[in-house]
Design a protein that fits this description.
Elements: H1 7-18, H2 23-33, H3 41-52, H4 71-83, H5 89-96, H6 100-110, E1 113-116, E2 119-122, H7 127-147, E3 156-157, E4 168-169
Antiparallel strand pairs: 1-2, 3-4
């Protein structure tokens, strides 16, 4: 059962209370309109009583608590991750002042990243990145067919996220 009601549902309850409908009829009316959502009988009855007793407002009241800062948090987390992809969620949380859960949600849901081998990496490649990787793989296979594995010692790899500052020879 739902532990809270949506403002739309409270609006319907207010309408029914003002139309002098019984709480039981109000519950049936809401259940008919919300076939895919469970509605708590006790909540419907409680709100019905509030509206009958003169409550006018059915919208949520502002509550205290940690405000969500939105885009500023996302931008700051993105900057920190771009500086060092090995930072932990807790360290990023300490640097931004956001709670660990918010930072984790920003990384996974908003920035679409996963932790792989102690690094945060993008979950999905762009079409251009996929095409480039296929092209490079084919190029290496062609070269392997022509030269064998002799060319492998001349391949240089780079950390594409740091602009090549961590290049290594293989």
């Amino acid at each position: 059962m739902a532990t809270t009601l949506k403002p739309e549902q409270r609006c319907v309850i207010k309408f029914c209370a003002n139309a002098n409908m019984a709480p039981t009829d109000t519950l049936k009316f809401i259940q008919r309109g919300n076939q895919h959502t469970d509605v708590s009988r006790s909540l419907v009855f409680a709100w019905h009583k509030k509206f009958r007793d003169g409550l006018d407002d059915f919208l949520d009241k502002p509550r205290s608590g940690r405000p969500y800062r939105g885009e500023d948090d996302v931008r700051r987390v993105h900057e920190i991750i771009n500086e060092d992809r090995r930072k932990s969620v807790r360290k990023i949380s300490d640097l931004t002042g956001s709670c660990v859960n918010v930072v984790y949600r920003i990384l996974t849901d908003t920035l679409r990243m996963n932790k792989v081998c102690a690094r945060w990496v993008l979950q999905l490649l762009t079409q251009d990145q996929k095409t480039r990787r296929v092209h490079m793989s084919r190029s290496f296979l062609d070269r392997f067919d022509r030269e064998g594995d002799r060319f492998l010692h001349r391949i240089v790899t780079m950390d594409e996220w740091n602009g090549g500052s961590n290049s290594t020879n293989k």
